[in-house]
Every structure is written in C-alpha cells, then in structure tokens.
Amino acid sequence: MNVFLCLQVPAQRYQELCRRFGFARSFIARLYFERHERDLEIRRLRRHQSRQSSAVTRLQLEVDRLRTRLEVEGIPLDFSEDEEDDDGSSSDDAPPSPPPQAAAGPRRSPAGGDASHASMF
C-alpha cells in the first residue's frame, strides 16, 4: 500500500472535519448573536409596555379625579354622544338635526305670503 495515499486520506478527512467544525462554530455564533438581539428587543418592548401601562394608569386616575370633581360640583356627565345606538352605529353617524327655524316650517312674510317665494317677485 502506498504510504502517501494512507496519509492523504486522513489529511482530507481532517480538513473536511475542520471545515464542518468551522461552519458549525460560525452558525452557532450567529445563533447566539440573533438570540442576544432578540433578548434586547424583548427587554426594550417590555420597558415600553411598562411605560404605556403606567401612562394608562395615570390617565385613568386623572379621569377618576375629574369625574369626582364634576360630581361634587353637580355637573352631570352626559356620554350619550359617545355611546353606540342599538344598531351598532355611533350617534356621530346620524345626520345633524336641522336648525330650529327650518324645523318650524316656511316663514311667512308680513304680507301673509310665503317668504321663500317673496324674493322671486
């Protein structure tokens, strides 16, 4: 058997193992980096969520304080404009009510005629 051939096969195997090991090391390093980045993002999001939660709590306390102040001063709280109607639509969707004058009907001119036609003559 050729000695050179015997040495060449283990050398090729060694190089192949080193190549695979190098790939595995770089792959693992990339996974650790991605995990570290993900952990940083999770911590950032948790801090943000905590700040948002604190802000909501402060706003709710302010709403409660103002509601109590209005009740003490005898000012009624009317939320009917913000509530939804029975059909699920908001009252904001309804057309505005006509002005009081238009709801009363056409005006009469002093001569007894309809004021809407008086300007035509």
TrEMBL record:
Residues 79-90 have a biased composition (Acidic residues). Residues 74-121 are annotated as: Disordered. Residues 102-115 have a biased composition (Low complexity). It comes from the Eukaryota. This is Uncharacterized protein. It comes from Jatropha curcas (Barbados nut).
